[in-house]
Amino acid sequence: MAIDLKANIREKAQQYFPEVQAIRHHIHANPELSFHEYNTSAYVAEKLKEFGITNQQPIAGTGIVALIEGKNPSKRCIALRADMDALPIMEANDVSYRSKNDGVMHACGHDVHTSCLLGAARILNDLRDSWEGTVKLIFQPGEEKHPGGASIMIKEGVLENPKPSAIFALHVYPHLPTGTTGFRAGQYMASADEIYITIQGKGGHAALPHQTIDPIAISALVITGLQQIISRKGNPLIPSVLTFGKISGGFATNVIPDKVDILGTFRTMDEKWRYEAHRWIKEFTEQTCSAYGASAIVEIPSGYPSLYNDPALTAKAEGWAKEFVGESNVHELDMRMAGEDFSFYTHHVPGCFFRIGTSKDGKEFLAPVHNARFDIDEESMKTGMGMMAWCAINSLV
Question: Taking the model in full, what pTM does it have?
Answer without folding.
Answer: 0.94
